[in-house]
Amino acid sequence: MDNELTIGEISRRSGVASSALRFYEERGLISSVRAGSGHRRFARSALRRVAFIVFAQRIGLTLEEIAAELAKLPSDRIPARKDWARLSGAWTQRIDQKIAELQRLRGGLIQCIGCGCLSIDKCELANPSDRARRRGPGPRYWLG
User: Fold this and answer.
1) Residue 42 β-bridge partners
2) Which residue from 46, 51, 65, 96 puts its CA 20 to 30 A from 30's CA?
3) What backbone phi and psi angles, to 5 degrees, belong to 59?
């Protein structure tokens, strides 16, 4: 029992609402066993899985992608640091892409975004004769 935590304990320690934990369990992202009273009991290792889920969502992975990543963890033992490193190592490119996109967004706030408005005096320099319209509607320089 010392290695098992209630849903309330997992919620308090992870900062994730109990309802979200039940949702993750329904999706197969975490698992519990039922005590004699019918209450859920989670292995202590569920805390790391919940932290992984929260982090993965923050970098933009869908629940389906998260489930696929979690399925790569060993089922016959508690995942070690090398197991978690192997999973997260593949995300470097995804994070770098997000950083690049955010930098483009920041640049677009003060530069021409290719919207075709030609209302800012700089637009005539950055987008002469509204040539961005040939690339399609909307903020073309921002969209890439």
Assistant:
1) 5
2) 96
3) -90, 5
Place of tokens 């489930």: 67
Strand-pairing partners, residue 5, are: 42
Looking at every residue in the chain, the average pLDDT score rounds to 83
Note the pTM of the prediction, 2 decimals.
0.66
Tell me the β-bridge partners of 33: 41
Tokens of 12: 């308090």
DSSP letter string over 62-120? Answer: -HHHHHHHHTTS-SSSPPPHHHHHHHHHTTHHHHHHHHHHHHHHHHHHHS----S---S
- Radius of gyration for the chain, computed over Cα atoms and rounded to the nearest angstrom: 23
Within 8 A by CB and 6+ apart from 104, the residues are 142, 144
Q: Are 42 and 2 in contact (CB under 8 A)?
A: no
**Structure-token match 């989670």, residue found:** 42
Q: Is the pLDDT of residue 1 over 60?
A: no
Virtual CA dihedral for 87, 93, 94, 98, nearest 10 degrees?
140
Query: What is the DSSP-derived secondary structure letter of residue 37?
Result: T
